[in-house]
Amino acid sequence: MLTLTTCPEAVIFDMDGLLVDSEPVWEMAEIRLLDKRGKTLIEEVRIPLVGLRMNDFWREMRAALQLPDTEEALIEEVVSDFLETIPGNVPQRPGADALIRYLAARSIPIAIASSSPLAVINGVVVEHGWDAFFPVRVTGDEVTAGKPAPDIYLEAARRLGVNPDHCIALEDSKNGARAGAAAGMTTIAVPDLSHGTPEGFANITPHVVESLHEVQAALEALECFA
C-alpha cells in the first residue's frame, strides 16, 4: 500500500502509458512505419527507449535498424499515424480521470510532462475531456535534455510556480521515473506492464503502485485537501 508522509503542492503527470493506454497504439504505428521499409520492430531495441522524447527515440531506432530516413521524417510519419488513431483507441488508465478531477476540485496545480509532441498531448486531453484541467503541458521538445534527465519536470514545476521538492511526479516508464527522481520530486511509478515490471523500479523509487486509484487513496489518507 502506498503511504505518503507530506502533502504535495502540485502533481505532475506523464501521459503515454500513465494517463492513457497509448503504448500499444504507438507500437502499432511504429510497426506500420517499419513494415513499409521492410524492417521488423525489435522489442529488445524498443523497450529500453520507452519514455524518451521522439528525437532521442528515433535516433536510436534509426541507427539500430539502419533506416535511411531522417529522424524528422520518421517522427512526422509516426505522429501523423498516431493522431489519426487517437479517437476511440487510447483508453484511460484506471484511476486517471478520478485523480485528475479529485485534484482539480481541490485547486491543486497539475501539469503534464510528456515526451510526446504537443499535438499528441492536445489530441489526447481533448479526447478525454481533460483540456481545461491542464493549462500547463511541457513536451520533451521544449527542454535541453529529455527524459531520463530532469529538465522536463523542472520546467513543469517552474511553470506551476512550485518548488520541485514539493511536487509529486507520476510515471509509468523507468526513463520517466528517473527524470522525476532526478528533479527531486516524490516519484510514484505506475508501471505499464507492456514494457516494464514493478521490480524494474527498485533502484529508482520506493513508490510503486498498480494504478492511479492507489495514488488518490494515499492522498485522501493524508487529509491534505479535505
Task: Provide a compact summary of the structure.
With 226 residues, the chain is of the alpha/beta class. It contains 9 helices and 6 strands, in the order βαααααβαβαβαββα.
Any overview of this molecule?
- This protein is 42% helix and 10% strand.
- By secondary structure, it is an alpha/beta fold.
- Strands 3-2-1-4-5-6 form a 6-stranded parallel sheet, sandwiched between helices.
- Helix 6 (118-127) links the parallel strand 2 and strand 3.
- Helix 1 packs across helix 4 (71-85) and helix 3 (54-65) crosses helix 4.
Q: What is the element layout, followed by pairings?
A:
Blueprint: E1 10-13, H1 23-36, H2 43-46, H3 54-65, H4 71-85, H5 96-105, E2 110-114, H6 118-127, E3 137-139, H7 151-160, E4 167-171, H8 174-182, E5 186-189, E6 207-208, H9 212-222
Parallel strand pairs: 1-2, 1-4, 2-3, 4-5, 5-6
Provide the descriptors you would attach to this structure in a database record.
six-stranded parallel β-sheet, alpha/beta, 9 helices, Rossmann fold, 6 strands, 10% strand
* CATH architecture label of the largest domain: 3-Layer(aba) Sandwich
Report mean pLDDT, rounded to a whole number. Answer: 94
CATH class of the largest domain: Alpha Beta
Distance between the termini: 21 Å
Q: What does the main sheet amount to? A: 6 strands, parallel
Number of alpha- plus pi-helical segments: 9
Helix-strand makeup class = alpha/beta
CATH superfamily assignment of the largest domain? HAD superfamily/HAD-like
Q: Tally of extended strands?
A: 6
Unreliable stretches: none
Can you write the helix and strand succession as a string? Answer: EHHHHHEHEHEHEEH
Strand order of the largest sheet: 3-2-1-4-5-6
The gross shape turns out to be globular
Number of domains: 2
How much strand content do the residues show?
Answer: 5-15%
CATH fold title of the largest domain: Rossmann fold
Proportion of helical residues: 40-55%
Radius of gyration in whole Å, from Cα? 17 Å
